[in-house]
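Handout, page 2. Input:
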Amino acid sequence: MTLAVRVAHGRAFVDVRVIPRAARNEVAGSREGALLVRVTAPPVEGAANEAVVALLARALGVAPSAIAVERGGHGRRKSLSVPADTVPRLEALATV
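Output:
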């Protein structure tokens, strides 16, 4: 399945499925239209969210402050916004 990305007002919105407490930090393709991200951080006090943002910032070549958790801050399924010009890199990450 392909990655579902919505672009509006210079931002791209993408759903992310997070697997906390994984063996390593990695982007593992896509699942059900969402980017699948594994992080070693536990889902406590925002640690997993910070790890997801840091991992995606490195993968997309942007500053962590350019990525925002829009919805789902306390769940495994989140909606993130990133700069719209990173859409090709997002789609490449989804095909890993």
